[in-house]
Amino acid sequence: MANRITELFNIKYPIVQAGMVWNSGWRLASAASNSGILGLVGAGSMYPDVLREHIQKCKKATSKPFGVNVPMLYPNIQEIMDIIVEEGVEIIFTSAGNPKTWTPWLKEQGITVVHVVSSVKFALKAQEAGVDAVVAEGFEAGGHNGRDETTTLTLIPMVKEQIQIPLIAAGGIATGQAMLAAMVLGADGVQVGSRFAASEESSAHIDFKKLITDTKEGDTQLTLKELAPVRLIKNKFYNDLQELYKKSPTQEQLKELLGRGRAKKGMFEGDLEEGELEIGQVAGLIHDIKPVAQIVEDMMREFTEAKKQVSNL
């Protein structure tokens, strides 16, 4: 299946495994790449030396292309970027920052750069900065998200209308049918997060994976807009947060309740009460924990079957 995304990344299928904090270690990234899609190591939850270890292990586990997702809001960003270059990583997905800051330097190193956006405005800024492609992420997505709450269904065609570079759709995509829908709307490929969070190779805690499969419609909510919007599963921490909101809290009070390490506590250590549990709305369609290879195979089968169904309409 050749198109602009498969050619850009030299992969078989136009699917990207999202670089999710506490989920996307080298096992997930290498399994994804070995399945014919682009695997991403999620640097957002890794100290620099840990990131280097994951990159090295990923290189040993796959001969296929893989990349690293880098949120640009961390204080040790220079060290992270230097490690990525030193280790010969050829693809970087950047997020949570201005793409102009790092794109020119990364391009000078011969690296393919993709930037994650949540609006047409930022998609245009990313294109202007010289990125090779953008991921346009609707607010259905798990984890950190856009403030405008633009859905994937409306975001993708609006971004497609304005940019010339390849477009990857994200947010609410876990099936081949959703992949086809996104591509009909103008996407060249898709980025999938939540479905791979509930894979056997995900580095998330097994209790978090099981909770994903039990999550139903309405069990997640976008919150903490005053700090950085994030979609969470409703649990004790979420409920404590809503109680605090009734008191019209300051940003400092929200930060105090959030504290440090909430995401690690929830997704990596399995504290389903006090942890921050980031997952997308599409979790309501995820009912089992599967190997990555099976997930990719299922998605491509569903995609092919959906194309045939559409042609019969």
Q: How would you describe what is shown here?
A:
The protein is an alpha/beta fold and 313 residues long. The protein folds into two domains: 4-204 and 283-311, Alpha-Beta Barrel (TIM Barrel); 216-282, no CATH class. Helices cover 42% and strands 15% of the residues. It has 14 helices and eleven strands. The strands form two sheets. The chain has an eight-stranded parallel β-sheet. Helix 2 packs parallel to helix 3 (48-61) and helix 8 (176-184) crosses helix 14.
Notable traits:
313 residues; alpha/beta; TIM Barrel; 8-stranded parallel sheet; 3-stranded antiparallel sheet; 11 strands
Please provide a brief summary of the model:
With 313 residues, the chain is α/β, with parallel strands linked by helices. The chain has helices at 4-9, 26-34, 48-61, 77-86, 103-108, 120-129, 152-162, 176-184, 194-197, 206-214, 236-245, 251-258, 262-268, 292-311; strands at 15-17, 39-42, 66-71, 91-95, 112-117, 133-137, 143-144, 167-170, 189-192, 220-223, 230-233.
